[in-house]
Amino acid sequence: MSAPKDEMHALIDSLSDEVAADLLPELQRLHLRWEAREERRPAARPWPPAWFGSVSGSSSDVASRSEEILREELGQRSCAPGGSGLSDLH
Question: I need a labelling partner for 70 at 20 to 30 A (CA). Which of 1, 12, 31, 48 fits?
Answer without folding.
Answer: 48
